[in-house]
Design goal:
The chain is mainly alpha-helical. Helices cover 40% and strands 5% of the residues. The chain has helices spanning 12-16, 32-42, 49-54, 71-83; strands spanning 30-31, 60-61.
């Protein structure tokens, strides 16, 4: 009996895991999806313009990456902030 294990890994995963350096503290707070779009571009990936054109959110914030943040950790953090925003 033979067992085979196949793992397919896209080259994009390496781009998603690359360390990102981003801050918007020197300017006004930005919309979360604008920050995500910039981070995707910084990771050398192409954000889908149609998808980001349809997403609307009033949430704006300051954001700075840590020394070891990548696209996965940054987007997770930003999406969590999206749902805890107080609009009062």
């Amino acid at each position: 009996m033979f067992r085979y294990k196949l793992q397919l890994v896209s080259s994009n995963i390496f781009k998603c895991l690359s360390v990102l350096n981003y801050t918007n503290y020197a300017k006004e707070p930005e919309k979360i999806f604008d920050i995500v779009k910039k981070l995707i571009g910084q990771a050398e990936l192409t954000p889908d313009g149609e998808t980001f054109g349809q997403v609307i959110s009033p949430v704006k914030m300051f954001y700075i990456t840590n020394g070891n943040d990548n696209l996965l950790t940054s987007v997770k953090y930003l999406m969590n902030k999206q749902y805890y925003f107080n609009s009062n």
